[in-house]
Amino acid sequence: MATATAAQARKAAIATVKRGQARAEVSALQTFVWVGKDKRGQSMKGEYSAKNMSLVKAELRRQGINPTTVKAKGKPLFGAAGKTISAREIAVFSRQISVMMQAGVPLVQGLDIIASGQANVRMKNMLVAIKNDIEGGSTLHEALAKFPVQFDELFCNLVKAGESAGVLDTVLDTVATYKENIEALKGKIKKAMFYPAIVLAVALIVSSILLIFVVPQFETVFKGFGADLPAFTQMIVNMSRFMTTYWWAALLIAGGVIGGFIFLYKRSPAFAHLCARAVLKLPVIGQILHQSAIARFARTLGVTFRAGVPLVEALDSVAGATGSPIYNNAVKRIREDVAVGHQLQLAMRQAQLFPNMVVQMVAIGEESGALDKMLFKVAEFYEQEVNNAVDALASLLEPFIMVIIGGMVGSMVVGMYLPIFKLGAVVG
Fold first, then answer.
1. Total number of domains constituting the chain
2. I need a surface site. Which of 248, 363, 392, 403 has the fewest CB within 10 A?
C-alpha cells in the first residue's frame, strides 16, 4: 500500500513538473519581426515565434529566405500578455484542427498554421508549445494534458481514444461538434440569466439615484408645509436619509453579502449543493437548468462512448460536465452502480433525477447496442427544449420586469406627491 502511494506521489510530482516546464516554455517564446529576401530577390516580411533570434534566422534560411532584419516585436503598453484563453477559442481551435486533419494536413503543420493566425498571444504561445511537444515525440493528448485549464480530462481522454484507434480526425470532428454544442447551450443559459439580472440592476441604480438626489429636494419642500407627512411618504424620506448619509455602508453591506456568498459557494460543498438544489426548484429557471444538465450529460456521454471510451471511465469524465453539483453527485453514484454490474438505465432510474423518457431511451439504446445514438437523440431533444424555454422566458420576463421597474419608480413618485394631494384636499 505504501509503495502504491509513493508511486502515485511520484507520478503527481512528475506531472506537476511537466506542467511547470510547459508554462516555462510558453513564457520563454518570443515573437520576432523579420524582413528578408527570397531566392528571386523579392522582399518579404513577417512574424515568427521562437526562443531566440538565432532560431528565427535558421528557420528562415531553411525556407529559402535570406533575413536582412530580425528584431523582437515591441510589446503594447496594455495587454502585453494577451487576454485569457476562452472556452469559445478552444471550441474554434477544435473545429480548425479537425478540418485540417480531415483535409490531410499533417498535425504539426496544422498547429503551426492555426497558431500563426491567432490574435490572442496566450493562445498562440500555447499552440506553439503544443506543436513543439509533438515535434519532440509527444502524442497530441500528452501535449494537451499539459494545459489542464484549457483542455480538461474529458477532452484529453477523447483525443487519446482517437489516437489509440487510429481515427484521430474523426474523433476531433466529434469533439469540435461537442464543444460547439456545449458552448451554444452555455450561451443560452447565460442569456436567460443575464437579461433579468441587468434590468434589475438598472432598476436598483435608478431607485438609488432617486433616493439620493431627487427625494431630498422634495423633503425640503415638505418642510414648509408644517404638517405631518403620510406614513408611506415618511418611509421613503427615511430611506433617502439613510442612503444619503450611509450610502457607503449600503455598498459595504452589499459587497460583503456578495463576497461572503461567493466565498461560501466555492469553499463549502454543502452550501453549493444547497444553493444548486434551491435554484433547480425555481419555477422557470429551474426547469431550464434541469434540461441543460440532462442535455450536457447525454451529449458528453454519447461523445465519449462513441469514441470508444469504456462506460465506467466515460461516466467518470461526464460527472464534471453537467454544470450542476446535484447532477455531478448523481452521475458519480451512477458510475459506482455501473462499476458493480448494474445496467446504466437502472442506475439512472435509482438517481431519481432523470425523466422517464430519458431512462427509457437509454434502456432501448442498451438493448439495441446503439446507446450513443440514443444519447445524441436525448441531447438534441433537450437542447431544443432549452432553446424554446429561453425564448419563452424572455417573452415572459419583459412584461414582468416592466411591472417591477414601474412599481419601484412609480411607488416613489406616488409617495412624493401624496403630501401635495393631501394639501390640495385640505385647501379645497
1. 3
2. 248
